[in-house]
Structures are given as structure tokens and as C-alpha cells.
């Protein structure tokens, strides 16, 4: 793959193309990520180009990460929080030709997985995300800036879907008719959330907002959770975001890109391990209202992702990269099947939650 990496970027961090090996890595849909191996050092680095059409204020990300890193350094100096490395001019990001770049230390002897192959991995990952929220429980979430305004606001996502629907062409609407009906008929998920939204014991917390398995580094030998990465969307939010997206991405053996819907099933041992891992950190912190909404968090996040893929399909596939025109629509089908499976297994899932809440 051609590396669209300006040598000015390397220079900002004190490296050159000649003395540094660069490879593109990662499977994220949003930012471009490179691994940098300077010849003169043992250490490696991660260099990332921030997608500024998604993150319109890279400075907000930098400010949030600095505030959190400072807090953790004082209160939990042992905790491994991967904060950006400064440029040679002591800047938090390199701003070159209207693009923002940041560099992070590469954590040796760790791996990042794209799919979970063992419930223990669900336990470790959920524990890592729970741990970050627990350590930041006393940190004032309001001091953080939203790095994507309304990112997990289901009201807004529903509105955006309705707008896209109103503007879509007839053939597009025809092609997506079943999924549009599904999107409309599941609006009760939004209404249910809104009936809880103003409770005082449903606080905004510091949330990661992208808890897929590839955002956790595991020890490459023991698979123990080491730290979490991809911190751009750390901002205030409901606990639902993190736990719900784990349900969305850990429970099925196949990803949102799977088109064979028969494969979309829920793995109960993964659910149990995930709940156990998350509650091992968060049980004493979650309020009664939050505890009531544990299973709902999965519904909320799966429905939101279905709406986001459908909105993108109806507006010409501008946000999520696709490898064929109907891919976003296939992703919608996948997500609604997952939502269905969650409902089918609701009783067992709720029993597991209750067992681990005592
Ligand atoms: C995007 O970039 P990546 O793959 O980590 C998206 C998430 C979605 C996910 C779906 C900033 O995450 O919200 O859940 O795709 N991130 C952004 O695969 O929109
Ligand atoms: Mg991400």
C-alpha cells in the first residue's frame, strides 16, 4: 500500500524516512494508522493521521487526553494510560498541510485482536473498559469536551435517519424498505431511553465510546488485558455506550460485515465473561438505575449502529468505508439480526446479569 506520509510529519518528531521503517496497520474505519520503527531505537511508535472530517476539533481530543492523563498520573500513577508523545517542538500534535498527526508509544509484547476467540478475552477487555471508568469516577466528566458532538445521542441519530429518509431516492428507499420498517418499528428503544434520561442517578461518566476488542491491548502470551487504546472518543457519556458496544461487538462470533445472517448468534459464555469482567470494576459504582439498564445498553447501541449504517446507506455511503454499494445495508441487516437474537435470549441474559449483581 502506498504510504501517504509526508516526511514533514516524521521530521516533526525527529525522524526521517531514511532511518525509520513505516508500515500501515490497524483496521479502524476512521483514522489512518502507521507503525514506526526508528532504526536507532528499541522503541516503536504508532503514528496516526486524525480524520478531521469526523473529528472536527483535534484540539479537543488533545485537551481531554491531557486532562485525564494529568489526573491519572497524580491519582493512579501505576495505571498505563497511553498518552501522545510530544513533537520536537513540544506540541501535542503535528499540524502539517492542514492535517493533524499524533504519535503514541507502541506497547511491546501486546496484541490487538479483531475477533474474540475465547470468553476470557471478553472478560479481560470488559475489565479494562470498566477500570478506566472506575478510576475516573471522581474526575469531573463535565470538564471534558465532546470530540464528536452528539456521538452516541440516539435522539440525534434517529433525527439524522429521518432526514436521510426524507432525502433518499425512491429506488434507495425501495431497496432498503424492510430495514427502514425495522428502524421505525424499533423507535421504542429511543423512547425507553428517554424515559430514563433525566433520572438523577443516571449520570454522565467518562466513557471510551468505542469498546470493540481491537481497542484493548492484551499480553501476547497470557492474553491478560494490559491497556486500552483509540482514545479519541473519550468524552462524557452514559455507561450504556461502553457496555452496550461491547455487547454489540463481543457476543457474536462474526462482525457487523457478516452477510450470512444465520451466523449471527449470541454466545452466552462470552456474555457472562463480559458482564463478570465489567462488574468486577463497576459493580460498586453503578447506580440502581444503571444496573436496571445493563441489558438495555446492548439494545441501545445495536439499534444506534443500525440507524447509523442505514443513514449512511440512504445518504450515499459517505461516512463508513464500503467495498460494495449495498454494504452498509447489509450491515443494517446484520445489526437487526443481532438485536433480534438479544431479544430471543433476553431471559437468560438477564438471569446472568442478576447472578453477577449480587
Ligand atoms: C467507527 O473507526 P472505528 O472502526 O474504530 C465508528 C464507531 C462505530 C464503528 C463501526 C468515530 O469506529 O462509532 O461503532 O466504526 N467511529 C466513529 O464499525 O464514528
Ligand atoms: Mg475508533
Summarize the structure.
The chain has 358 residues and is α+β, with helices and mostly antiparallel strands. The chain has helices spanning 7-12, 58-75, 119-135, 154-167, 170-175, 177-185, 188-196, 239-250, 268-282, 288-292, 294-314, 327-344, 346-357; strands spanning 20-25, 32-38, 45-50, 94-96, 99-105, 110-111, 205-207, 216-219, 225-228, 235-237.
Write up this protein:
This protein is an alpha+beta fold and 358 residues long. 45% of the residues lie in helices and 13% in strands. The protein has 13 helices and 10 strands. It has helices spanning 7-12, 58-75, 119-135, 154-167, 170-175, 177-185, 188-196, 239-250, 268-282, 288-292, 294-314, 327-344, 346-357, and strands at residues 20-25, 32-38, 45-50, 94-96, 99-105, 110-111, 205-207, 216-219, 225-228, 235-237. A 5-stranded antiparallel β-sheet has the order 1-2-3-5-4. A hairpin with a 6-residue loop joins β1 (20-25) and β2. α3 (119-135) packs parallel to α9, α4 (154-167) packs parallel to α11 and α11 packs antiparallel against α12. The chain is globular. The N and C termini lie far apart (52 Å). 40% of the residues are buried. The mean pLDDT is 95. Residues 28, 30, 210, 230 line the site of magnesium ion (MG). This is Phosphotransferase. It holds the Pfam family APH. InterPro entries: Aminoglycoside_PTrfase, Kinase-like_dom_sf, Pseudomonas-type_ThrB. Residues 21-252 form the Aminoglycoside phosphotransferase domain. It comes from Pedobacter jeongneungensis.
Amino acid at each position: 500500500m502506498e504510504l501517504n506520509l509526508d516526511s514533514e510529519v516524521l521530521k516533526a518528531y525527529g525522524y526521517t524516512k531514511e532511518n525509520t521503517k513505516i508500515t500501515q496497520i490497524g483496521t479502524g474505519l476512521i483514522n489512518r494508522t502507521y507503525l514506526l520503527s526508528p532504526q536507532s531505537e528499541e522503541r516503536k511508535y504508532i503514528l496516526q493521521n486524525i480524520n478531521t472530517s469526523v473529528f472536527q476539533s483535534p484540539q479537543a481530543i488533545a485537551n481531554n487526553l491531557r486532562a485525564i492523563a494529568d489526573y491519572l498520573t497524580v491519582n493512579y500513577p501505576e495505571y498505563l494510560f497511553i498518552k501522545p508523545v510530544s513533537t520536537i517542538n513540544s506540541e501535542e500534535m503535528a499540524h502539517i498541510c492542514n492535517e493533524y498527526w499524533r504519535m503514541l508509544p507502541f506497547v511491546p509484547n501486546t496484541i490487538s485482536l479483531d475477533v474474540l476467540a475465547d470468553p476470557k478475552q471478553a472478560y479481560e477487555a470488559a475489565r479494562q473498559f470498566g477500570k478506566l471508568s472506575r478510576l475516573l469516577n471522581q474526575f469531573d466528566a463535565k470538564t471534558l469536551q465532546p470530540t464528536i458532538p452528539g456521538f452516541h445521542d440516539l435522539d440525534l441519530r434517529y433525527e439524522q435517519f429521518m432526514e436521510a429518509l426524507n432525502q433518499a431516492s425512491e429506488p434507495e428507499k425501495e431497496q432498503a424498505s424492510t430495514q427502514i420498517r425495522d428502524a421505525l418499528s424499533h423507535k421504542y428503544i429511543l423512547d425507553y431511553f428517554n424515559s430514563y434520561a433525566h433520572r438523577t442517578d443516571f449520570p454522565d461518566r467518562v466513557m471510551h465510546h468505542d469498546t470493540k476488542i481491537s481497542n484493548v491491548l492484551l499480553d501476547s502470551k497470557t492474553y491478560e488485558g494490559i491497556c486500552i487504546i483509540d482514545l479519541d472518543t473519550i468524552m462524557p457519556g452514559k455507561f450504556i455506550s461502553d457496555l452496550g458496544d461491547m455487547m454489540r461487538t463481543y457476543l457474536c462470533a462474526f462482525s457487523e460485515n457478516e452477510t450470512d445472517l444465520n451466523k449471527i448468534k449470541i454466545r452466552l459464555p462470552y456474555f457472562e465473561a463480559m458482564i463478570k469482567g465489567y462488574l468486577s470494576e463497576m459493580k460498586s459504582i453503578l447506580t440502581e438505575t444503571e444496573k436496571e439498564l445493563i441489558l438495555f445498553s446492548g439494545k441501545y447501541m445495536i439499534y444506534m449502529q443500525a440507524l447509523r449504517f442505514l443513514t449512511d446507506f440512504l445518504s450515499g455511503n459517505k461516512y463508513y468505508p464500503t467495498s460494495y454499494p449495498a454494504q452498509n445495508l447489509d450491515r443494517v441487516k446484520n445489526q437487526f439480526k443481532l438485536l433480534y437474537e438479544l431479544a430471543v435470549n433476553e431471559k437468560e441474559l438477564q438471569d446472568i446479569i442478576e447472578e453477577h449483581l449480587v
